[in-house]
Write a structure and sequence with these properties.
29% helix; alpha+beta; two-stranded antiparallel sheet; single chain
């Protein structure tokens, strides 16, 4: 049961987890924000790759999605944008619940509110989306009666999407990531360093982490820039948390646990890259990677997004 509880905690972590006018640019800095018009529409390609490493073997799961977004309205306070998934191709035995649910929401319109600088604010048509999501998760629950581990995770997802915030966490990771870099000014040759809290997948106190944000490329001629971030957690803190958790669930003696885990290379980290055409406010290419090596459960998750037009 404790292993199932851990799976639920890790599920939530993976789910959780990111002005009109011209951009103000100089030779070494840029403001990233939308420059969209009403009825402007674009097509997006999304690829998710999940790699699980266990017992000396790596299993890769690659899923593909296609989506469109259309600008419905622009006001002084921001933008209303309609996102619609138009197609999906799930990997066999896709382990990520978010992907499984989204694959069942083809042609469901999600109305998103952004600030005037492009920051995500909220999902507007919550009730409409929730109705489709509830039906989708119910189907997953009904079809997993022979798989108790997945069944309990589907039921946890059903509970998560009962609230607006939970629905946004469960379903909008990809949409939020598209606008991840919007709303900030970036400068070449400058690394913004932030002390942050990173959720603990084992259920304990959040980890202290360091986030670094950097504009690594600025081409004013083509109006493109590249923004990269990374988040790191001290490996000793991760190791201490894993040791504490394993001691609670394992019958092995404390010294054995200390010795075995003490030798392991444990890691929790995140990195992102976004290539943006800042004169239009379009994300040309986007890359997110999360690595969680906890010894007993090791997973790397990659999200790639590309605007096609």
């Amino acid at each position: 049961m404790k292993q199932k509880t851990l799976s639920l905690l890790i599920l939530l972590i993976f789910l959780a987890a990111y002005l009109s006018g011209r951009s103000q640019t100089s030779d070494n800095s840029v403001d990233v924000k939308p420059h969209w018009k009403v009825d402007e529409a674009h097509s997006v390609k999304i690829i998710t790759t999940t790699s699980d490493f266990s017992n000396g073997k790596t299993q890769n799961y690659i899923s593909n999605f296609e989506a469109n977004f259309k600008v419905l309205a622009i006001t002084d306070s921001g933008y209303q944008v309609e996102w619609t998934y138009t197609d999906s191709k799930l990997a066999n035995n896709e382990p990520v619940l978010e992907s499984q649910i989204i694959a069942k929401l083809i042609n469901v319109k999600m109305i998103i509110r952004l600030s005037n600088t492009g920051r995500f604010k909220e999902l507007i048509n919550v009730n409409d989306v929730k109705a489709f999501a509830d039906k989708s998760v119910d189907e997953l629950i009904a079809g997993s009666s022979s798989n108790p581990t997945m069944n309990i995770q589907y039921k946890a997802a059903k509970q998560l999407i009962t609230t607006k915030k939970g629905l946004e966490i469960a379903l909008l990771k990809q949409i939020k990531f598209y606008n991840f870099s919007f709303g900030f000014t970036y400068k070449l040759d400058y690394v913004q360093t932030n002390d942050i809290k990173f959720p603990n997948p084992l259920g304990g106190q959040p980890f202290d982490a360091v986030e670094k944000v950097q504009l690594t490329k600025l081409d004013n001629k083509s109006s493109t820039c590249v923004i990269e971030t990374n988040k790191t957690i001290d490996g000793n803190a991760v190791k201490a948390a894993v040791i504490e958790y394993v001691k609670k669930i394992s019958k092995a003696d404390a010294k054995t646990i200390d010795d075995e885990i003490g030798k392991a290379n444990l890691e929790i980290s995140e990195s992102t890259m976004q290539q943006i055409e800042f004169s239009k406010g379009l994300v040309q290419k986007s890359f997110f990677k999360r690595t969680m090596n906890l010894g007993f459960q090791n997973r790397t998750s990659v999200l790639e997004i590309e605007t096609l037009d």
